[in-house]
Amino acid sequence: MNNLVSIVVPVYNVEEYLMRCVDSLTAQTYKNIEIILVDDGSTDKSGDICDYYEREDMRVRVLHQNNGGQSKARNEALKIARGDYYCFVDSDDYVPCNYVEKLYNLLKDNDADLSMCEFTMFTGERADGAFDNPKESVVKEYDNVELIKNMHTIAGELYVVMWGKLFKKELVTGIQFPEGRICEDLAVLYKMYDRVKKAVYCNDIMYYYYRNNKNSSTYNINKKFYDDVFMALEEEIAYMESNRRELLEYPKKTYMYWLFDYYKKLYNNHEKVNLAKLHNRYKKMYREVKNLPKEKFYTVFYYAPSLYLRLKH
To answer: Is the pTM of this model over 0.90?
Structure first.
């Protein structure tokens, strides 16, 4: 008997996309799954859609809660999850029918704790046919240190999001998503990665990431987004100081990048109030990142931020 896989799906005001998502999960070729839909106080018909699927498919379990955010929804789902393995899917995204089977076999065949696949972004109704899978599948193995480095050195979302992965239960046990914050994945993944003995990655595109949902917490990047990113990175820096000092400069360099990005956003919006404080924080972090290579723009911005941005603008 194959192991039970728990699929956690937070749901909030996604009536337009939810059936696309859940249909893709109930159609999985890997049958031993439970699908936990957490209605996070939706004000549209999302909660009713969840209840419909629970009536139609005994593998679907539904929780309803007052609006508390995606972190709370995930935390509540994990309290009742019964699986040996967990995966997380956002309710406006969807997956191919062999998604779980692919990740499960990848993990089992390589005796790994974590498996992950590539994704594609789309903005229309479907992603099918909008991309080409690689002609040859490439499988790579990583340990915990390499995964944490990948969070900070590989461009794109893959290593800083919960989706697109299958986790052994032990990686997630005891982890709490920080409630009331966005970018919550960034706040927990480094802890999960540090528990990994072996992770395995495949370059097959197996997750379809929707990028046009205006209700998404990351659709509009605002001050709260930056505050929560900085908080997550400060927590990671403290964790590395205590547990992985050899990796300490990686979150510090990422912190430096987001200070640069926030400064640039405020400057371009003619919001000059906090620029000096931001640049002082940037310079402090710059001086602390001594061993990792820095791209040229970091140094130019260190000495002449306004000039750099005027030239780029």
So the answer is: yes
